[in-house]
Design a protein that fits this description.
Elements (H helix, E strand, L loop, with lengths): L8 E7 L6 H11 L5 E7 L6 H11 L3 E5 L6 H10 L5 E4 L11 H9 L5 E5 L13 H15 L14 E4 H7 L10 H8 L6 E5 L14 H15 L6 H26 L4 H24 L10 H30 L2 H24 L2
Parallel strand pairs: 1-2, 1-4, 2-3, 5-7
Antiparallel strand pairs: 4-6, 5-6
Length: 363
Amino acid sequence: MSHPLPADVTLIVPCYNEAENVSALVRGVRKALDGISWELVFVDDDSPDGTSSEVVREAQDDPRIRLIRRVGRRGLSSAVIEGALSSTAPVLAVMDGDLQHDEAILRDLVTPLLAGDADIAVASRHIDGGDSAGLANRWRHALSRAGIRLAQSILPVPLSDPMSGFFALRRSVFEAAIPRLTGTGFKILLEIVLSVPGRVRMIEVPFVFRPRLAGESKLSPLVMVQFLGMLIERGCKGWLPTRFVLFASIGAVGIAVNLLVAEMARLAGADFRTSQILGTACAILANFQLNNRITYLDRPLRGRRWLPGLLVFVLGSAIGAFGNVGVAQLLYDTHGHWSRSSAAGALIGVVWNYAIASTLVWR
């Protein structure tokens, strides 16, 4: 009985609602990597459009195609990490499942790595021969340019396209980076480069970012918010986790919501107590929804889990508010400094609420 040769290259494709693109992508990969021992791992976040079914259909005809179907978990970076951990190949490649990445240049990415001439190869839209024309509109171009400038400001090595989702790396590089990866957000290349101890040999290969033919783009202001959180974490050397940065930022939004609703209630004729109750209730609900959509995007509460999660969040926030006031009052009685006591109380409240959210609400 013959056995298939072990793969030299594992191509990881994180996907969500890409059913219409699966067959075309498989055909392109077969052509691009002809003569190279490869496997293709689709990591699907339980897409409702039948992406997993399409992958299964392709895998029945080709054992080099595998599926990891994730239920109850979301996120591109964590999907890439799970796909990489499922592989034993010496070279790992990553590309999107939307056909905007040109699979024809896969050979140019992986060949230098297989030969040992580089550690990371990045498909770049921003060197000679590359183009980002496939981005849908001026807004997406602006988001991409802003992200690139921010990323380049903290990178330890020159990289023209740190926002690229199309790259390849040697397994040894991934294994060196994995203890420091958070798996949050959508820009896994940047996080890997920032997590590898020491310098790596990096090359860039030009590619043209193609227009999307099917499905929906994943680039959005939400992605950029998560990206900013990750940059802040890296700028603080990991002392402030990305989730905590996002959680605290949303808390600041909640304060603004509280003040706005309370003022609107006052103008409508409500007394002070009623306006404060309304403002607080709206702030808590806004914080819960924003955290569900942004901070904990990879594990959102839906259906029957939403209301119990909200109730625990409200209870935890109420306890946190009492702790906030108690700490602030104690410090004020001891030291008599108004602003410092208030800030300390607020910090205790945020940390408490974050602990409750991470351990009891979005477990």
